[in-house]
């Protein structure tokens, strides 16, 4: 029998970027906020000297425990889904700060084209540019409406960058200047220019200099140690919730964190949501936490799973096209080309978002009339800091074991570098999330099931973008090169990328979306669902900056809702 606790004004489920932003903003406004987090609380000190590639990268120390809670996946509707036993195509974080602690730092604004992709595509290329099997739709918000919230997120996190020559003109500069330019990135920049493209510095949440944000939180300057992705930053130089929004929320005195609290259901009584049910991860005792407003800010997969478990909204049915919960699942596919050079670079040093990017083949920056796809991808070379266990690139034809492999991988360590793209993926009628009819988690509840396969559109964009990357790498005069390929079907391993979106998508029409543009559920006015799960498609950039902007706007909407006691 679950124990019922005292009611709170706002309960926030998950304390990554989305949850911590909402918590900080509402706590600053004087609201009573409780944050529930299934993991534990960590600080910068917990990551001191934690440069253990096996523990954090191979062993996924900072990720969800798949032996207790995972997903199942299949390619088609007529296959049986099987459990994911190892992380690959995406990473589900745990602990306070979530993925905002182990991320690389790439901090982008989505393009105006993304937010109005359906209407802009139809207007320019006609309604028959894509088949009806691709479920593209406008987001129900424009870039201009979201721009002030992008600015607020960037000011909070201190992003280092410069104006994107192919993007909208910024109204204010980035808070801090671009990161260092290395010899490798200088050569890549020159190669981009030689190939006719317009390079610029990748916007980075790894800060180029010490910075104090508007809330009074100070972030350190990056030391270029090369341990960003899948690691917490020991210097406090990578923007994360544990050095920005969590401390800000705590300082108000209006915010409390409860760790080891795994929310498994949203409670509804008398036709209205009244709180959440969570399990204490240590004792497995159940608690009901009543609240006036429930804010779901977990991982994309878990946001969707919670709504499906709680029977909130209407589950998507690919056979009929009805329902929206679970619809429009997308991930990032990353076409890439690795060059092997006579020249040596210092590849052990770097940072997660230390890079140079071109946007010439992203968004609608080129004419797609004669192409069998829309959109494209941002192409980057990043000097992230090579690590010895998993980063052993060798030229094609070299075996991946034995003396030859050892010799060639040592030779190539400082003489090879890859460029890759964050590539558009469009929602497809049969790519979606649902509850698995067979497999259950440690609490006896159905696992989330992923049905996903690579589409013809994916293949068309992949080949086009890979060709463009190869043109740039060729300008660097490689002695050899390797190029990524797409398999016949999607598989969790090897990894494509961990930027997954969709499942609780936003929009202007309750019939085709789960939440409005304040990320408030159409069907439950005191429930807000925030995260990558809101994206109707995956754009040509990393999603974190857009999640941050949407979170700030949602926090504003929640505050208005609480003050006015009604729908937005």
Ends distance: 36 Å
Structural class: alpha/beta
Strand content: 15-25%
- Biggest sheet overview: 8 strands, mixed
Dominant shape: globular
Please estimate the helix content: 10-25%
Task: Identify low-pLDDT runs.
Answer: none
| Total number of strands | 20
Reported CATH architecture: 3-Layer(bba) Sandwich
What is the fold-level CATH name, i.e. the topology? FAD/NAD(P)-binding domain
Number of domains: 1
The H-level CATH homologous superfamily, spelled out, is FAD/NAD(P)-binding domain
Question: Helical element count?
Answer: 12
**Average predicted local confidence, pLDDT:** 96
Task: Report Rg.
Answer: 23 Å
Assembly form of the protein: single chain
CATH class: Alpha Beta
Word description of this protein:
The chain has 568 residues and is α/β, with parallel strands linked by helices. It is 23% helix and 18% strand. Strands 1, 2, 3, 9, 10, 11, 12 and 20 form an 8-stranded mixed sheet that branches. Strands 6-14-15-16-13-19 form a 6-stranded antiparallel sheet, with helices on one face. It has a 4-stranded mixed sheet with strand order 5-4-18-17, with helices on one face. The radius of gyration is 23 Å and the shape is globular. The model has no long low-confidence stretch (mean pLDDT 96). Residues 219-333 form the Glucose-methanol-choline oxidoreductase N-terminal domain.
Primary descriptors:
single chain, 568 residues, alpha/beta, FAD/NAD(P)-binding domain, eight-stranded mixed beta sheet, six-stranded antiparallel beta sheet, 12 helices, 20 strands, 23% helix, GMC_OxRdtase_N, flavoprotein
